[in-house]
Amino acid sequence: MKRDSDEKDLNRRDFLIRSARAGGFIAAAGLLGYRLHDDTGARGLSSDEERQAVLADYSVPGTSRKMSIVTGQDRVTSVRLGLEAIGGIESFIKRGDKVLIKVNAAFATAPALSATTDPRLLSEVVRLCLKAGASEVAVTDNPINDPQSCFALTGIGEAARSSGAKVIYPKQTFFRPVTLPGGNLIRKWPVLVAPFEGVGKVIGMAPVKDHHRSGASMTMKNWYGLFGGRRNIFHQNIHEFIMELAMLVKPTLVILDGITAMMTNGPTGGSLADLKQTNTLVVGTDQVAVDAFGATLLGKSVHDLPYIMKAEAAGAGTADFESLGPARVTAG
Amino acid sequence: MDSRPARTETYVGLVILFTLAVIAAGIFLRQFHYDAALFAPAVPETGSAPASASGSSEGPDLSDYATAGLSPMSGVEVFGPETLSEKIDGKAEMYLSSGFKELRCRRFGRSDRPNEWLELFVYDMDNPRNAFAVFSLQKRADAEELSIVRFSYRTSNALYLVHGRHYVEIVASVESMAEDVLAVGLKFIQAVQAEGANVGEIGLFPPEGLDPSSVALHVSDVFGFNELDNTFTASYNVDGVTVTAFLSRRESPEDAARMAEAYRRFLVENGATVTDADLGIEGARVLKVFDTFEVVFSKGSFLAGVHEADDGDVAGRLAVRLHQGIR
Questions:
Q1: Cα A265 from Cα A260, distance rounded (Å)
Q2: Would the CB atoms of A144 and B45 count as touching at under 8 Å?
Q3: Which of A42, A328, B10, B184 could form a disulfide with B34 if both were Cys (CB 3.0 to 4.6 A apart)?
């Protein structure tokens, strides 16, 4: 066969020439691939843009260890007292501030089911912000269900508007890829960034709820509502993800509504039988500490909720809420 | 010396190069049409029609179950396994691990009272056992048992029932709609043909001290052990102590014995130690798992035992009664 004779005739010189050619082609292909490689990915951002897309730090210097625990049944009175106990809303909101309130409007359910931020509580917080001189207050969330239905049926939309805030419904153009520096999960993921533009202060408001995957949904888990895309995949690694949420968002304040807690069948609940009057509202600047206390309202400890200890280890706050010397107030 | 390649080799080489060129061109063109789903936010535009996600758009729109005075507030929403979390978020995992096929739901409002409405959820769980599983895992304490179907109860604002392969929830925005909720449930039961759930294992739990409302079916990944599925649990009050018994029908006595051994091994691998307690049950093992006790045995085609009991003596006594009840 000719092939056999060719191989037999191949001398050392030809072999080296062919090897050199093959090596040259491989090197050229590798170089071409390297030059064409897009390290920002599809529709990604440049490194500079990515840095800009990371959310700012909205905390007020010198207020990192403020916390109050109010015992009461009335949310409006409780939040007023809670804020007064840590220096008043004026310690956090200054004249001319633009304020963004991240509510939990996840589900299109009635306020009585306590699956979402209570509209009366929201109204009072908006009112207090405006009274303190805020130039604008906006309320937003990217709900699990249809946004229009969620904001309407929860009463959050009407509460926001009637108290002087504007509602920002999520739109596709409001999302931009965000990476948490050093994060393992939050990498180039679409986040509801547009409502943060021009904002000076951020307040998170969440109810205390049982959660089938994470054990509890409180102020840290509330930031999940800023995420777009197929965010449910984060449920596979929920504790790590909530820890990263706490690292990503550094709010001015968080308000945890435990006046009524969803003890079972969270996060949706559905029955009034899932609820318990726990008569407690917490205001604080350390979301890890606030959630650590919130766990007790569900009859749990921080060891039942691994994300709290992870968040503490990551430097997002302290799980030892007593170390903050929280002000304890009774709302009559 | 002729070192030129043979003609056949040349042709083969050209074909390979051409194929690579086509692949490269395909990749180049494809990058302009990447799958946006990974980056595009899943945001229903406000005011848009409700989702019909990945579920089938064909099928009942649920309007037939609206009773007098109720009218649809929205279109029917349909969710499949890929999209269930868009409706119920973190609770989706429980349904998915229990054989979930499809959810249809729709809101109906009182024509005369605008702020009063209810939402009907119809979960297709593939078979009655799966439907019973999700029903039992979410059962509310202190609920009012109903007799409209074998497995049904209501709370002050909601009704929950198993009807054939369907698990049904009807949730009202206010307590004053309790009668509307019940009426919608009855209408659904009358309109939909259904077979009963085959959950005969429930009758094997000894009745003394049993909390009947606590009986639950776990379809998969029971007690964190991914090999263990299809297991019933029930709570007992034994001398004032709450203890959980479990029972799982396997395919054969050999399979039951093999599963008992596998579960025992799983516990040991996770820190349990086997005690020398003798319950008088052949093959039974009492294990100490940190501060709790676990009893595991098999009898016939059943794997059974007691789970995470605080008191080893109580666990042993309940295990003996459970063993006697299995026939």
A1: 14
A2: no
A3: A42
- Contact residues on chain A for B50, CB-CB shorter than 8 A: 146, 149
| Least Cα separation, residue A223 to chain B (angstroms) | 14
Q: Which residues in chain B are contacts of A171 at CB distance < 8 A?
A: 43, 45-46
Helix (H, G, I), strand (E, B) or coil at B199: coil
A274 in contact with B at a CB cutoff of 8 Å?
Answer: yes
Return all residues near B28 (Cβ < 8 A) that are at least 6 apart: none
Are A232 and B86 an interchain contact pair (Cβ–Cβ within 8 Å)?
yes
Cα B225 to Cα B231: distance, rounded to the nearest angstrom: 11
DSSP B131-143: HHHHHHHTPPTT-
Neighbour tally for B46: CB within 10 Å: 16
Quick one: DSSP state of residue A1?
-
Q: Is A175 on the interface with B (CB under 8 A)?
A: yes
| Chain A residues touching B94 at Cβ < 8 A | 212
- ipTM over 0.85 threshold: no
From chain B, pick out residues whose CB is under 8 angstroms from the CB of A190. 39-41
- What's the token pair of residue B286? 């009492």
Helix (H, G, I), strand (E, B) or coil at B118: strand
Listed in sequence order, the residues at least 6 apart from B223 whose beta carbon sits closer than 8 Å to its beta carbon are B231, B246, B263, B307
A 46-105 residues inside an 8 A Cβ radius of B: none
pLDDT in tens, chain B (327 residues): 555 778 888 899 999 999 999 999 998 887 766 554 455 545 555 444 444 444 556 788 999 999 989 999 989 999 999 999 989 988 999 999 999 999 999 999 998 888 899 999 999 999 999 999 999 999 998 789 999 999 999 999 999 999 999 999 999 999 999 999 999 999 999 999 988 878 889 999 999 999 998 999 999 999 999 999 999 999 999 989 999 999 999 999 999 999 999 999 999 999 999 999 899 999 899 999 989 999 999 999 999 999 999 999 999 999 999 999 998
User: Cα separation of B293 and B288, whole Å?
Assistant: 5
Return the structure tokens found at A164.
């002087």
Q: Which two tokens stand for residue B194?
A: 């259904």
- Test the A interface: residue of B32, B89, B144, B167 with most A CBs within 10 Å: B89
**Beta strands at B216-218 and B285-289: parallel, antiparallel or unpaired:** unpaired
- Whole-angstrom Cα distance, residue B289 to residue B284? 16
Close Cβ partners of A251 (under 8 Å, ≥ 6 residues apart) = A58, A59, A102, A202, A203, A204, A285, A287
B40 interaction partners in chain A (CB closer than 8 Å): 172, 190, 228-229
Nearest-neighbour CA in chain B from A119: distance (Å): 15
Helix axes A238-248, A306-313, angle to 10 degrees: 40
Interface contact B92-A232, CB threshold 8 A: yes
Cα–Cα nearest to A163, from A133, A117, A131: A131
